[in-house]
Amino acid sequence: MPNRRKLFIGAILLVVATFVLTAGGFLYLLNAGSADVVSTLNFFRALQIVKARYIEDVPMETLMTGAIKGMVNALGDPHSVYLDAKMYKEFMIETEGSFGGVGIVIGVKDKVLTVVSPIEGTPGEKAGIKSGDQILKIDGQDTKDLALDEAVNKIRGPEGSQVTLTIRRPSTQEVKDYTLTRSNIQIRTVEGKMLPDKIGYIRISMFNESTGADLNRKYQELEKEGMKAVILDLRDNPGGLLEESVKVANKFVPKGPVVSVVTRDGRRETHSSNLEAVKYPVVVLVNGGSASASEIVAGAIQDTGAGILVGTKTYGKGSVQTIMRLDNGTAIKLTIAKYLTPNGRSINGVGIEPDVKVEVPEPRQPGQKDIQLEKAIEILKSKL
């Protein structure tokens, strides 16, 4: 047997021995069934064959990265993904409030890459991309075999560069190419103003690290102006950080549970509000682009009777992901739990039906009235 092959097999055996000798590896083999042990050994056998017999020499790092990606992809969960160093860095930048791209938040719905919502004032929103649009191609590459975060990585890029998205709009089945120039997306998540009759209007576009604090400031500003009722606009809000959604809920949900996070072993972690009493009548605006953390807030307000939901059914993302760092600046984003509303509802894949359904006619015309907002104002006027 050639020395090189002997050395390789020795290296493989060393990897296996190291795995077994670690606490995690020992416990795995101790608890694993015979089929699991055989599968593990098959993995190392396949690695040996590829490394020894493939026509070209392939770096071990490349093979192991491919194995990790394949393992996570095998879960069949669009929200669980392997993040290489570049993708991980960009993911962390997004949660901090700025990133380079076209300003659309995407997800997977019915196994199709779908726009959850465009971000206000960005190239995507200005081009007319809408919630529910399906992205068929990115720069000519079919998206059906792309993991969600791979698609995100392809859409993002340096400011000033261009990307072409081939989009199908389900309502009309029209397929159209959008060539967008990337810009530096600065996310200002909270905006607000006072409407007539002292009705405060607060718009939250997504939940990042500053959302809770920004909401508090805007809420206090409106209180100083004499606010008597409030509209919370969560339309086309794709979600974000769970902790920030709980901070927001503390302004609108009475004392008690806001959301429960349930893991695979049934352990439950409940996040609660400490608000003694709801101060003002509340209407929450939602639509098909309201997802994840925005559904946590909307669901808690609906379940507790703290306000009225107006609009259309929400997106239906009721799972919780966490980032687990690996070596070399890489990570796995993994679904670790589902969340339940205060009444124990799981909305994953289902969404939340509003209390008052108000459909927006498509296609929207320039200058068309916001009939959902008008309905919210009408409801609150009746309560003043």
UniProtKB/TrEMBL annotation:
Keywords noted in UniProt: Hydrolase, Membrane, Protease, Serine protease, Transmembrane, Transmembrane helix
Residue span(s) of domain PDZ: 92-170
Keyword Ligase (UniProt): no
Origin: domain of life: Bacteria
Family matches, as CDD domains: cpPDZ_CPP-like (cd06782), Peptidase_S41_CPP (cd07560)
GO biological process per UniProt: proteolysis; signal transduction
Entry keyword annotation includes GTP-binding: no
GO cellular component: outer membrane-bounded periplasmic space
InterPro entries for this protein: ClpP/crotonase-like_dom_sf, CtpA/B_N, PDZ, PDZ_6, PDZ_sf, Peptidase_S41A, Tail-specific_protease
Pfam family, one: PDZ_6
EC number from the UniProt entry: 3.4.21.102
GO molecular function, one term: serine-type endopeptidase activity
Residues annotated as transmembrane: 7-30
Entry similarity comment: Belongs to the peptidase S41A family.
Name of the molecule in the record: Carboxyl-terminal protease
Species the sequence originates in: Thermosinus carboxydivorans Nor1
